[in-house]
Amino acid sequence: MDKNIPYKTYLEESEMPKQWYNVRADMKNKPAPLLNPQTLKPMTAEELGVVFCDELVEQELNTTDAYIDIPEEIRDFYKMYRPSPLVRAYCLEKALGTPAKIYYKFEGNNTSGSHKLNSAIAQAYYAKKQGLKGVTTETGAGQWGTALSMACAYFGLDCKVYMVKVSYEQKPFRREVMRTYGASVTPSPSETTNVGRKILAEHPGTSGSLGCAISEAVEVAVGTEGYRYVLGSVLNQVLLHQSVIGLESLAAFEKLGEKPDIIIGCAGGGSNLGGLISPFMGQKLRGEADYRFIAVEPASCPSLTRGKYAYDYCDTGMVCPLAKMYTLGSGFIPSANHAGGLRYHGMSSTLSQLYDDKLMEAVSVEQTKVFEAAQQFARIEGILPAPESSHAIRVAIDEALKCKETGEEKTILFGLTGTGYFDMVAYQKFNDGVMTDYIPTDDDLAKGFAGLPKVD
Ligand SMILES: *Cc1c(COP(=O)(O)O)cnc(C)c1O
């Protein structure tokens, strides 16, 4: 064991970040703006304000301020579960026999079981400050809905969650956690919205999708006095809030006198990865340091590695603004055997631009390989990881094994975004040996691309 480096490094509460870092301020090529789907002109603050809270709109459009103050009320809530530990994975290093140093930043130590609470509490705070009655949102696997219901309970806001129907049925316990925090949970598509009824009429018996649940949640927010819509990933504001992960990591590394060479994160909509890498990417963009950044996505939902960089709809009902991103098309739905989360069709426009500028790499991994890594990690490091997080574990292990071959002592940091207690159906499939992989064919993907809007 490296004497100077403890197994866990916790910052003091007083060392926690007081400002979020906005990586767009240091990007030469800014992410493309959101477009109004009717006029194809950039969305104005007024237009966005119909859907989102005013301060969040400001943050969404802010590409120039590198640092934005974290209000004290949010920092107080952060103290209930932060700072999160930076862990040196000594046991994993030993088991792999690698000369690499492996670190992970663990975001699973709160009831929502993931990093999503970092943005949920911020979004609930701004909604409350604006005097709103409540917020609406969608949730897939349920982590975001849980995080938001916790945040809304704290600030006394109503919370309406549209939950992808298949998850609603398969994850009754997630649903009950949300209800315990006071949220109402509706399976999507539902009969409660125009867009839900339309989708049900066109696709009877559909098990739902994130894109569809987003459309329903937006419709309800826009049509209900005193409500706005909030989103748990993809948006620039969410990456901004999640920068607390990277800022704490950077501060801990500086305290230890260490520096990562490779930074790895799983990528669904891109919020944890964007948050983890932001301050390090800032150093790279300013020419102060260099790092390798690796986004890891499922082979069954490969938006970065096989998607197109184009303007696309963010939701199935096409009620949201258009975003330029690496996308598989808003009609893309991963094959039914896909269990590992990270199933959104597009990627954060900030990360998409960084990837297009070759400042970040991306790889895709098959889910049986992901669950092998999850099981190995659980047995060696003790934490039962979320399937999403296990994508990053997979690639961290692969990179550490490469170091074993070459004898290089690289320092690897990965984001362990959450725990997997509610994913036992997927673990059961893996344990029973019946989990399968499906990689979409080019023909499968062509169908999704055919639905891209025509934007010059
Ligand atoms: C939601 C979630 C993700 C993926 O979302 P991003 O916005 O890409 O970070 C990853 N891990 C966990 C545990 C999650 O709940």
Written overview of the protein:
Helix content is 42%, strand content 16%. The chain has 456 residues and is α/β, with parallel strands linked by helices. The protein has 2 domains: 8-16 and 84-113 and 243-450, Rossmann fold (3-Layer(aba) Sandwich), CATH 3.40.50.1100; 19-68 and 116-229, 3-Layer(aba) Sandwich (Rossmann fold), CATH 3.40.50.1100. The strands form 4 sheets. Strands 1-4-5-15-10-11-14 form a 7-stranded mixed β-sheet, with helices on both faces. Strands 8-7-6-9 form a 4-stranded parallel β-sheet, sandwiched between helices. Strands 2-3 form a two-stranded antiparallel ribbon. A hairpin with an 8-residue loop joins β12 and β13. α5 packs parallel to α6 and α11 crosses α12 (271-285). The protein is globular. The structure holds pyridoxal-5'-phosphate. Pyridoxal-5'-phosphate (PLP) binds at residues 114, 116, 143, 233, 266-273, 342, 386, 388-389, 417-418.
